[in-house]
Amino acid sequence: MSFARPSDEHAYRVQTTRQAKMPGVTRPSFRCSECGYYRGTAGRQKTASGWRCAACKRMREARAEQKMAEAA
Ligand SMILES: [Zn+2]
User: Fold this and answer.
1) Would the pTM of this model clear 0.70, i.e. be above it?
2) CA 2–ligand 1 middle distance (angstroms)
């Protein structure tokens, strides 16, 4: 890649370095409304307040199953 001005290259480096720490910019992801982390979109679940990541979804399902098992 070539740049017209040295400052352009600097800006490019600064941006890509910053984005490397932000998965939301480099791959499809979202902020989980439950754990607050940026997660991949795979397995996410729509909720009233936004999206829930796959890990939080599994946690919820496990809790629900445990409650059902306790009630039985
Ligand atoms: Zn989550």
Assistant:
1) no
2) 40
**pLDDT, tens digit, 9 for 90 and up, residues 29-55:** 899 999 999 999 999 999 998 999 999
Cα 43 to Cα 21, 54, 59: the distances in Å are 22, 5, 13
| DSSP, res 39 | E
Could you tell me the CA-to-CA distances from 34 to 22, 40, 63 in Å, in that order?
19, 14, 15
Structure tokens at 62: 């496990």
pLDDT at 21: 66
Ligand 1 centroid distance, CA of 52 (Å) = 5
